[in-house]
Amino acid sequence: MRFLHTDDETHLQPIKLSAISDEWGSVASLIEEHHKDAKQLHQLLATKDKFFDLVAHDMRSPFNGILGFADLLIEEDEIMDSKDRKTYLKYIQQAGKTAVNLLSMFQEWARLQTGRWVPDPHAFLIHKIVKSVVLFHQANALSNHINLSSDVDASLSAYADDHMIETVIRN
């Protein structure tokens, strides 16, 4: 059916399949295009689900660190000296900065997935990336009485997109 407009009325007019074929190409190609679009949509939805899973996984670490140190400050407030209190507050601050940095990286990843961001490969020192990842996990590790350290040669370099490499090492 299609709409047929006259001066003061609109009517539905039946269309023969051959007319559809003539006007828009073959019906089979329209169906094939629809299936291709549906498959692409399915892939995009799967990518979105993976993205949300990654966000939830990576955001858990800094927030667990913030919560862990906040709990320590609350529970041990009366017996804690000002030096320890300041140390815990610095860990909370670092975990908050890490969470904000992580959100920025997720925004870049989303832009990459939608074609609005292009990777920026360049030379960088690997130990700086590893140090950043250790800091990312530090607050959570310390709240669980775990000490993290790294021993990467300070002169070791790579040529890649440093944000992508950081994501790989962090996970």
Question: What are the defining features of this structure?
Answer:
single chain; 5 helices; mainly alpha; two-stranded antiparallel sheet; two-stranded antiparallel ribbon; 171 residues; 4 strands
Provide a descriptive summary of the structure in words.
The structure is a single chain. This protein is mostly helical. Helices cover about 70% and strands about 10% of the residues. It has helices at about 15-25, 25-75, 80-115, 125-145, 160-170; strands spanning about 1-5, 10-15, 120-125, 155-160. Strands 1-2 form a two-stranded antiparallel ribbon. A two-stranded antiparallel sheet has the order 3-4. A hairpin with a 4-residue loop joins strand 1 (about 1-5) and strand 2 (about 10-15). The chain starts with a strand and ends with a helix.
Low-confidence stretches: none
Overall structural class, as computed from helix and strand content, comes to mainly alpha
Spatial order of the strands forming the largest sheet: 1-2
Mean pLDDT: 81
Lay out the secondary structure.
Blueprint: E1 2-5, E2 10-13, H1 17-24, H2 27-75, H3 82-113, E3 122-125, H4 126-143, E4 157-160, H5 162-170
Antiparallel strand pairs: 1-2, 3-4
